[in-house]
Design goal:
The protein has about 250 residues and is an alpha/beta fold. About 30% of the residues lie in helices and about 25% in strands. Strand 3 and strand 4 form a beta hairpin.
């Protein structure tokens, strides 16, 4: 007996749409439409997977295909929005390329919120948030994620510490040494954040201010010197392992 082909096929395009999805007609315009029409050559009757970071992932069928837009019929919710571990990544903005990579990995690894933190040695004062969000969306599309990290406005380190929410542990990567990260994270379950400094590291004054915060825990990431983006990915991975997400 011939097996019934999987529906929708694994090759079905998958895209983020910045609006709440529900069953019914939907018009797609802009870069998403260009990708579906000009790159994927979608025709009426072809399927597409859509997700909205709100309700989950939906199956839609192309109804009318134009040169710069297309209309689809959204039919079935394939899966609800995935649960996200309660972890923030607070990182000093890095140079272009490295900060883009960091945004992608924050999404892939399951971070709930990405917070750019301005420090005394920060090289980039105003990261381009639209570009970072685009990189996170692309990562989510490729990795079958249904949730995106929230992207906060840049905040100065002093303001971050002043307004830090009670009940959320702040693990900061202390290049001068700290409790082994995995051990510290296992001993402090619950809502958390990871704070990563800039390429030049925290200044001594900043380090003392962080250490003085009641929610802060200095952690070490091993015997090797890591670049800021590598340290962020390593620390997030360790927290996920300690939290049981892996």
């Amino acid at each position: 007996m011939t097996a019934t082909p999987a529906w929708p096929p694994q090759s079905t395009p998958r895209l983020f749409v910045d609006q709440r999805l529900e069953a019914g007609p939907l018009r797609i315009e802009g870069p998403a439409a260009h990708y579906l029409v000009s790159v994927m050559r979608m025709a009426p009757g072809d399927p597409v997977r859509l997700f909205d970071d709100q309700t989950g992932e939906w199956l839609a069928i192309a109804a009318q295909v134009g040169k710069r837009d297309l209309n689809v019929d959204v039919s079935t919710c394939l899966r609800a929005r995935e649960p996200v571990p309660d972890l923030w990544l607070c990182s000093a903005p890095l140079k272009k390329g490295r900060v883009d990579w960091l945004a992608e990995k924050a999404c892939e690894l399951g971070v709930d919120r990405l917070v750019p933190v301005l420090t005394q040695r920060t090289i980039v004062d105003r990261p381009k948030l639209d570009r970072l969000r685009s990189h996170m969306i692309e990562a989510a599309e490729q990795c079958a994620r249904t949730a995106l990290p929230a992207l906060a406005e840049p905040v100065k380190l002093a303001a971050l510490l002043r307004d830090w929410p009670a009940g959320r542990t702040l693990f900061f990567a202390d290049e001068t040494g700290g409790v082994p990260a995995l051990k510290a994270m296992r001993s402090r379950p619950g809502p958390a954040a990871i704070l990563i400094g800039p390429e030049g590291g925290f200044t001594s004054d900043e380090r003392e201010a962080i250490r003085a915060h009641p929610q802060a825990v200095g952690v070490g990431l091993g015997p090797r010197i890591l670049r800021a983006d590598t340290a962020a990915a390593a620390a997030v991975s360790l927290w996920m392992a300690a939290a049981g997400d892996w």
